[in-house]
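Sequence in, structure out. Go.
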Amino acid sequence: MIDNLSIKLRVILIFFILVTLFAIFAVLKYSPKEEISFGELGIVNKIASVETGKVYFFEIDGEKHKIILTDLGTNSIELTIGESPEIVLYFNLGETKKADLNQDGFYELVLKLNDFGEDSASISLQKLENLPCVENWDCTEYGACISGVKRRICIESNSCGTELNKPVTEEECIVKIIENETFNFSYSS
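Output:
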C-alpha cells in the first residue's frame, strides 16, 4: 500500500515539476528580454535603433507608449505600437507613417524607417501637435447582386481608428430577369 502511494506521489511530483518548468520556459521565451525607454519625445526627431522582439517605451505629454519591432522581412518591417488599442504599421525603407495613438482623431506621432539589417531597424520618432488624422479608405469593386444586396470591402490605410468618412459598403440592387429571350444551345457528344 505504501509503495502504491509512494509511486502516485512521485508521479504527481514529476508532473508538477514538468508543468512548472514549462511555465518558466514560456515566460522566458515570450516575455520581453529588455525594456528600453526613449524618454519624452519633443518636437525634434529621436532616432532609435530597435531590435526584433524587444520592448521600447516612449512618452508623449506624460503618456507612456510601447513600441516593438515585431517582424523584419527582406524588404519591409512591421512595428506594433501601444497596447489598447494596438496599432500595427508596415514600413518599406524610407517610408514615413503617422499614428493616432489614442484614437482621438489626431496624429500624435510620426515614424520613419531609416534603415534595417538582419535583426534591427533604425527608426525616427517625432511628436506631432494636434495634426488631424485624415481617413484614407481603399475599397474593392462591388460584388455580385445577391438577395438584393451587393457588397464591397473598404480598408482604412491611415490607421486612424475612426469610421467617420467610411464609404458605403452595401447597396441595394435588382437582379434583372430577361423574359421572352430565345437561347440556342448546341450539344455534341
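Check: The CA atoms of residues 36 and 56 lie 5 Å apart. Residues 30-34 have pLDDT under 50 and may be disordered.
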